[in-house]
């Protein structure tokens, strides 16, 4: 019990415009409403490569990439598990 479990956590790549977001509500058809760390609410879509592999639900912390041509929309590229979210909160990454 003395050793801490090593948790690998992917962080957003700011140079690509990635940011943290929290899933607010499920809209169906692979779309969700997210609240991003910059304070904006966006309509995000779950790409096909994630849709079948990862189940996203309300309250999940995700990484999104806002669309460059339509700033109120984004793509979800990553979902965090509960231990990863706890690690992010302990290390001060989540500022919602």
UniProtKB/TrEMBL annotation:
Database matches in Gene3D superfamilies = Nucleic acid-binding proteins
Q: Which UniProt keywords are present, listed alphabetically?
A: Initiation factor, Protein biosynthesis
Ranges for domain S1-like: 7-81
Q: Which InterPro entries match?
A: NA-bd_OB-fold (IPR012340), RNA-binding_domain_S1_IF1 (IPR006196), TIF_eIF-1A (IPR001253), TIF_eIF-1A_CS (IPR018104)
Single GO term (MF): RNA binding
Q: Name one Pfam family in it.
A: eIF-1a
| Annotated PROSITE patterns | IF1A, S1_IF1_TYPE
Q: Which domain of life is it from?
A: Archaea
Q: Which PANTHER family match?
A: EIF-1A
- Which HAMAP family has this protein been placed in? aIF_1A
Q: What does the similarity note say?
A: Belongs to the eIF-1A family.
- UniProt function note: Seems to be required for maximal rate of protein biosynthesis. Enhances ribosome dissociation into subunits and stabilizes the binding of the initiator Met-tRNA(I) to 40 S ribosomal subunits.
> NCBIfam families, per this entry?
eIF-1A, PRK04012.1-3, PRK04012.1-5
UniProt name for this protein? Translation initiation factor 1A
* Gene name of the encoded protein: eif1a
């Amino acid at each position: 019990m003395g050793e801490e479990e090593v948790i690998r956590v992917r962080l957003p790549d700011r140079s690509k415009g990635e940011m943290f977001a929290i899933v607010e509500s499920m809209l169906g058809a692979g779309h969700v409403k997210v609240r991003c760390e910059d304070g904006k609410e966006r309509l995000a879509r779950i790409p096909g490569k994630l849709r079948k592999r990862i189940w996203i639900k309300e309250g999940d912390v995700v990484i999104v990439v806002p669309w460059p041509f339509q700033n109120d929309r984004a793509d979800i590229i990553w979902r965090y598990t509960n231990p990863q979210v706890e690690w992010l909160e302990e290390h001060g990454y989540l500022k919602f």
